[in-house]
Amino acid sequence: MTSTPKPLEFCGRRLGGNGRALVCTPLVGRSTRALLAELASILPQSPDLIEWRADFFDAIADQRQVLAAASQLRQLAGSVPLIFTRRASHEGGEPLAMDEDSVVELYAAICASGDVDFVDYELSQSEHHRRRVRAVSQAHGVALIVSCHDFDRTPASVDMLETLARAEREGADIAKLAVMPRDPSDVLRLLEATLQAHTALQIPVITMSMGAMGALSRTCGWQYGSSVTFGVGHRVSAPGQIPVGVLRSTMAALGAAG
């Protein structure tokens, strides 16, 4: 028996269900000034979502500076939803001079600020920390993306499906999985796992196969159930990201062909 995940509605946008993926562009500036300049250059490209990769931010350990930057980004972004992400170094993020307790308290403060719509936190973190992030996101009406990134390989299909299902069981509003292909068949297995998760789970999923080989998943993954794709607006935040304009035109062509 198949089902359709319950979509999330926010700021006039629909994430999940059946339909074309939303296009998200990353911000990777190391200062508030650089972030605002990045965002100003990205907004004319009409992204559906903006992700602030805060692990690139030089002042991430200073909570006041992070909150001030988030407030300015919120004002400039207007109605475009914002995702706050500290990507852990063991999942491809920048190394930080912060312990995980401090990171989680930063998440609590950013959720309470009202300046972000989503936070992304890794499934690989301790249960204690994940529960804390889940609690503060729920308390402030911020959607939680629970993510997993494998930069070495593409796991077995059953393992990819279980990773996404575990994210749902542990309170995710959205489950995200990014993997690295070693050959073209890995990309096809990622898409198959995406379709299975889209059918089996009650929450939206975001999936991608990284690197040049995995680019196919970024342009047509939505046809298999991935609800968001990440495109380059200014600078890449992960290998294989495609410029926003190319993503939109390719997805439009695929939609027209269907």
From TrEMBL:
**In which residues is 3-dehydroquinate bound?**
E51, W52, R53, R87, R218, S237, Q241
Q: Does Cell wall biogenesis/degradation show up as a keyword for this record?
A: no
Q: Which InterPro entries match?
A: Aldolase_TIM, DHquinase_I, Type-I_3-dehydroquinase
- SUPFAM superfamilies from the entry? Aldolase
EC numbers on record: 4.2.1.10
Quote one Gene Ontology molecular function term: 3-dehydroquinate dehydratase activity
What EC class is this?
A: lyase
Question: Pfam families recorded for this chain?
Answer: DHquinase_I
Q: Which residues form the active site?
A: H149 (proton donor/acceptor), K176 (schiff-base intermediate with substrate)
Gene3D superfamilies, per the entry: Aldolase class I (3.20.20.70)
Q: In which pathway does it act?
A: Metabolic intermediate biosynthesis; chorismate biosynthesis; chorismate from D-erythrose 4-phosphate and phosphoenolpyruvate: step 3/7
Where does this protein have coiled-coil stretches? none
Assigned keywords, A-Z: Amino-acid biosynthesis, Aromatic amino acid biosynthesis, Lyase, Schiff base
Checking PANTHER family in the record gives: 3-DEHYDROQUINATE DEHYDRATASE (PTHR43699:SF1)
Q: Which family does it belong to?
A: Belongs to the type-I 3-dehydroquinase family.
* Quaternary organization: Homodimer.
Q: What does this protein do?
A: Involved in the third step of the chorismate pathway, which leads to the biosynthesis of aromatic amino acids. Catalyzes the cis-dehydration of 3-dehydroquinate (DHQ) and introduces the first double bond of the aromatic ring to yield 3-dehydroshikimate.
Q: What is this protein called?
A: 3-dehydroquinate dehydratase
